[in-house]
Amino acid sequence: MRFVKLSSFPILEQLRLEANVFRKSHENWCIVSSNGTIDPTIVVGRFGEVSKLVDMDASFKDNISVVRRASGGGTVIVDRDTMFVTLVCSSSFVKPLAMTCWASKLYTDVFRDVTGFQMDGFFDHVKDGKKFGGSAERRACNRGFLHTSFLWDYNPANMNYLKFPPRVPAYRLNRSHGDFLCKMKDFLPYRNFMLEELERSLGNYFVLQPSTLEDLQNIERDPEDCTDIISL
């Protein structure tokens, strides 16, 4: 597996590079970012209805970009305190339909020492009933893709840019963002702890090959990638 570490990289460009990896590479990849993205950015899933998910007036007023990614999933606002992990796997390792199940087992091992940790379904990372990570999935006949955003910390004021979504997981119980979310900094010993545990856990399945941003940028661009800024 190719293993790439990014830091404070623009999320729009990262999502575009990940789309290229998914469509144009045949290798297994893990792309991580420990220091999030440079500017606060709202990211909407491929099929999300922006008017129902984002306060566009407030976003425009405060110059907060809104990006649509190529994968599904919910709406998040990300910044320097968000950590990202993207897994892209060939069907020779795990069938695309089974990738979320495998990733759930992977993360259960990563957070094995966190009291109260559980996966809600295959997409939400939860501690004591509060969410600190969420995933977006994409599948092809021979590739599986899972992009996860983790909250090391977050600014409660930023959550005001997000509307209460029409569909929520049952365990949310109509709670506001402040009552529904938690921060990894409150239960992990230091910022890179989770990523170190991820490397260890991935080592149970793969020989990890350190790779670079340049390696990502050298992959052919996917002309069908729909990742882009949403006009305000």
TrEMBL record:
Residues 12-206 form the BPL/LPL catalytic domain. This is BPL/LPL catalytic domain-containing protein. Pfam families: LplA-B_cat.
